Amino acid sequence: MGANNGKHCESEGKGSSGVSSDVSSSTDHTPTKPPKNAATSEDSDLSMRTLSTPSPVLILAPQTIIPHNGNNSSSPVSGETVALVHPPPGHHQLAPVDLLPDSPIFQIFSHLSTNQLCRCARVCRRWYNLAWDPRLWGAIRLTGELLHADRALRVLTHRLCQDTPSVCLTLETVVVSGCRRLTDRGLRAVAMCCPELRRLEVAGCYNVSDEAVFEVVSRCPNLEHLDVSGCTKVTCISLAQDSSMSPLSAQHCQQISIRYLDLTDCFSLEDEGVRTIASHCPRLTHLYLRRCQRLTDEALRQLALHCPAIRELSLSDCRLVGDFGLREVARLEGRLRYLSVAHCCRITDVGVRYVARYCPRLRYLNARGCEGLTDHGLGHLARSCPKLRSLDVGKCPLVSDAGLEQLARSCPGLRRLSLRACESVSGRGLRLLATHCPELQLLNVQECEVPAEALRLMRRHCRRCVIEHTIPAFY
Fold first, then answer.
1. Using CA atoms, how far apart are residues 356 and 381, in angstroms rounded to an integer?
2. Which of 170, 382, 398, 467 is deepest in the core (most CB within 10 A)?
3. Is 144 exposed, middle or buried (CB count within 10 Å of its CB: 0-12, 13-18, 19+)?
């Protein structure tokens, strides 16, 4: 069917078969095997020529099956027989889907993925025209480690630019996360053809480098969401090919409109790269620097200096970040809502006190593994951030019932709390949480020595709470 339809499209719509087949082969790696009883290509061509004549019925030759006894008689044993019926002139028999108008088919196509749209474009000329309607191509989403992502992006962008030569004005989202064969050439094709791009996700594409990122941010002025997590070759994001330019000169050049930036697992990122990013991206509101282990407190000073709008900041596993860095983060003041410093072993009560004092609207704090955090820091946090909703102090051995008591009395709206492996927590702290925090929805007390009675009390007072535990007596 695919081969025949390709011939129809080639004769009816210019270039339709070529482009669609290229895209489909780029986005689908399942080998296409001929049906067991399908006719050969010569038979297929013959059937197409015969169908153009008004013959009522065409019977394709049945498959000859040799009996198991090895006797090859002259009379074949019939397998499946394929009959193609051609209606008399003036009476066209259509499939039920062909009776639908364009509008409902278009609505169905609007729910299909990129790969599925490319397949639909190969069915017939009508579906080809509907599948390539620009309104369906606001986003491209490709997946697969073995996908030829460069070729797929090149073919797709080339086809989408046919109606508006050299530019595609409808494409705003490109997601090719996990496509490890993606290189700078694929992103360069997107950058040159899609000036209206607003969202780009290339997570895990470790062949992408600074050069491709430069092409995208310089040619796509409306880009707001950029995910380059796992792109280990990315070291900075700027509008200047020379990343060593001074901050003063950066203030006089065009600024990047990125608001969401994920640099998780960009192991080559250093303080200098963060300085360049901060000076070019002053509108940042969400920044994730997880496991960028070369960063120090100086990087946070640059962020606080140039990016005052940051609301969410993740520094998990940045082990060189300490209390001085949190003091710089505290300069974000009332805008900061989300902060993760998990496993930043240099952070103590001093840094947490800075954040609590100057960021009273904090909603989420992840301090898991910060062994220098004690009840004093937890008390400052509870008193200064009464709107706290989620807190993770797991593996903080110095947090005890005294800290939980202050947390329970000052943060009644707490909904998620992790105390995993907090050895000093006992039933007294949990009883206070049960009576003072009725909105609690998740409690993690795994690897904690707490009595089952305290957990039962928690269940009675917080009926919506999911309790994660390792206590056999509690069920």
1. 5
2. 382
3. middle
Cβ atoms of 54 and 33 within 8 Å: the answer is no
Cα–Cα distances (Å) from 348 to 271, 327, 374, 403, 409, in that order, read 22, 12, 8, 15, 23
Q: Which residues contact 296 (CB under 8 A, 6 or more apart)?
A: 271, 320, 321, 325
Does the pLDDT of residue 47 top 70, yes or no? no
pLDDT digits (tens, 9 = 90+) for 74-133: 444 444 434 444 445 555 566 777 788 888 999 999 999 998 999 999 988 889 999 998
- Mean pLDDT, the chain, rounded, equals 82
Tell me which DSSP letter residue 99 carries. G
CA distance 468 to 447: 10
Q: Is 4 exposed, middle or buried (0-12, 13-18, 19+ CB in 10 A)?
A: middle
Interior angle at CA 402, CA 396 and CA 405, nearest 5 = 110
- Residue position matching structure tokens 């006797």: 71
